[in-house]
Amino acid sequence: MPKVNWNEETKPNYRWLVYGVPGVGKTYLSTYLKGKTYLLSLDKSYKRIPQLQGTDIWELDPAKPIEDLSEFVREFDPSQYDNLVIDNLSNLQKLWFIEMAKESKSGLDNKIQHFGEFTNWLIRFISKTFSWDVNILVTTWEKQSQVTDPSGQMFNQYGPDLRDSARDYLMGNCDAVARLIQKPKSGERGCILQGSIDTYAKNRLDDRKGCKVEELFTFDDNV
């Protein structure tokens, strides 16, 4: 007997991951989401966006990020919202390691086991939030990593600024992964949705290879 009854499936939820350099407009993306949005702010970027006034926001306490995030998970009610924005996981990663370093004698050093513990902790957090009946937008900063293709050529590859295993888990569980970029002269912003040797990206919602930033959440299923 199958556990999934397609006839009983309700409106699907979507998961987006958007990464880009600081200041390119990742937090502002949340203003384009349709419906009622809740913002989990992990770096306080929302304070520079007047369009977010009136949005329900949970501002992470940087002095106790692990405990505060656990409290958020217990208290958030996804049934009251259409969208959840998790902004920005890269900053959460840095706060987590700072918090764990307090266990060392100097209060500044991380132990080797912390790196594996962080990956497991973040995957547990992502799997929990992604189980909720709500659309989710996740943002991170951008980083460059050096990769080698099968021919031996080396490239700089753009991707989310997260530890590799956590990054791969997150990208694998998102419907779309986009790199947010901005043209220096015009200021026009857009999203790269097709992956390549030098860019982490994917799109399993439609056939677009890229789009204007304001069109990211508009695709065939919800136009």
Q: How would you describe the overall organization of this protein?
A:
With 223 residues, the chain is α/β, with parallel strands linked by helices. The chain has four helices and ten strands. The protein has helices at 65-75, 89-101, 112-130, 164-172, and strands spanning 15-20, 37-41, 56-59, 83-87, 135-148, 154-160, 176-182, 189-192, 202-203, 210-212. Strands 1, 2, 3, 4, 5, 6, 7, 8, 9 and 10 form a ten-stranded mixed sheet that branches. A hairpin with a 5-residue loop joins strand 5 and strand 6 (154-160).
Strand-helix topology:
Blueprint lengths: L14 E6 L16 E5 L14 E4 L5 H11 L7 E5 L1 H13 L10 H19 L4 E14 L5 E7 L3 H9 L3 E7 L6 E4 L9 E2 L6 E3 L11
Parallel strand pairs: 1-5, 1-7, 2-3, 2-4, 4-5
Antiparallel strand pairs: 5-6, 7-8, 7-9, 8-10
Short description:
With 223 residues, this protein is of the alpha/beta class. Helix content is 23%, strand content 26%. The longest helix has 19 residues, at 112-130.
**Total number of helical segments?**
4
Which structural class is indicated by helix and strand composition? alpha/beta
Q: Which regions contain 5 or more consecutive residues with pLDDT less than 50?
A: none
Shape: globular
Provide the β-strand percentage band. 25-35%
Profile the largest sheet: 10 strands, mixed
N-to-C CA distance: 35 Å
**C-alpha Rg (nearest Å):** 18 Å
Counting DSSP E segments of at least 2 residues, the number of strands comes to 10
User: Which bin fits the share of residues in helices?
Assistant: 10-25%
User: What's the pLDDT, averaged over the residues?
Assistant: 90
